[in-house]
């Protein structure tokens, strides 16, 4: 699987940002893959576009800041920032061309299903009347054209929006050309308008083109021969500048920083490549863009992130069939979850199993008169959050509820500020992390006075307490009442509340306290076994693996003979399959209809396997600059289940890609006589069989 062996060379690291672009290339592969239903291919175009926006808003912004400071922080970029930016620019342009081709291919495929995305020049007279009526009733009120000329200052453009750059021309007076800008409404109106069917044909029109079709009615006071519109989009530096003003609360600091984000430096300017050169030069001059700025020619449409919400046109063949989450075989609607947890641990795997079990546990705790306290960390929550409402309900029922809300969850700051204020209004004690350490851990602790003593229940997860993302992200949540774990989880909340003693941990790996050091010790233990000619193996599943110190340690383990398997969703800086360096390292990435999100560390430990799950990726920021928690899985049945999950994923030969040197993003091939395995569907079936087997066991037991 690691691919062709390479000649021995010095330890090598793939640049984090270039590796992340390779991950986004895998997203684009899903949009190109004809095995994927068309609506889902369109959705992947939206995900790709959204990811590219984030790349420029965050990573490119950081590199540009570093370049201005004239220093290359090798820990972060491994090379001079200007060189990285140059390579990013080249890769982005290559992917853009593939993106445009994928979109055109999808349009042709849609036509085979009698679905047509029309522009303003392709509609019939009858459709034109419908478009005009829709425009006048719903769109016109949201449009506020801005006239642009040499004497006026260019308005500050919103980087979440797209704009139509307008050119108005008189044939006999070329010097009378005028320019204008229209912001395409974002959020107030859907990006797509579905026209009435014509027999079996379905028609869709983008909001941009609806506005183009009605330009004459917008600029009716001018007597121009032609009015043209070309889409432009700006991307800004989205990194928050956090002040150290001790007179302000962290809440106030974040609120002000989010507002300043709207004025961040330009990190990318995209324009319709059909725009006339003199018009491009005019807007570039007005926006004070420099030659070295990333000015990228694009296609007709931008903000493809909106394509994640492409309308459902009622054709089942265009989308994946719905997968209804299974209920956990030990948990049902009419029995107490805490009574189950007092007997044994439970592992939930979303979205294969239902997130409702988490809501049910919180609801049970909220109304149980013997529950005294509920504590939870929140990083990203749903806009309409049942989790938060469950906590509010618990407070209303007299429970002492404490929430550690991370205000610096990038691009979710405003949503978290809203919920923090709402929780405080309802009597919940809300704590905030510090400027220096984001609270990224996924923890919940419930205290229950049961039969004369306090029993605590803990949840330790790999993902957020978010019922929306639990439908599309794969994540693991461990629910346990084991005192060995719950006592240590309580210590974490004690840190949040008191900020004094850090405590010692045996069953938790906690960043930045002991996670890095324990991880190195666990790898060293496998190295020791390998040197003693015993079986030694490490299996890591993470979102990102870029920390150079840990990568060097994995190289050392490989050279000692430790067999290392890696499943890495995103950025992967390690280079597998290099002779004499990483011969024993194999790495794949799985990308399918769900976004892989669990973090799992598994060590063979001479047959006494140790498994940890939790919130930490193998990145410097996670190991040293965030509060992360990985929990040791003590239940042997759950350890086996996690091993089964990893084995199924490792066997994927439909949606797995190689991360080996020279084989980056090649699909894993089905070998002769080998069964085809699409791991996400295989895992759905795995949990279905588990549920059915449990139901049968109960039935037999009741006879």
- Round the mean pLDDT to the nearest integer and report it: 89
Largest sheet: 9 strands, mixed
Q: Could you estimate the helical fraction of the residues in percent?
A: 25-40%
Number of helices: 19
The fourth-level CATH homologous superfamily of the largest domain is Polyphosphate kinase middle domain
Indicate the radius of gyration in whole angstroms. 27 Å
CATH-scheme architecture of the largest domain: 2-Layer Sandwich
Shape: globular
Oligomer: single chain
As for the CATH topology of the largest domain, it is polyphosphate kinase like
The overall number of domains is 3
In total, the number of strands is 26
Kindly estimate the percentage of residues that lie in beta strands according to DSSP.
Answer: 15-25%
What separation lies between the terminal Cα atoms? 49 Å
Instruction: Report the uncertain regions.
Output: 1-8, 71-77, 242-247
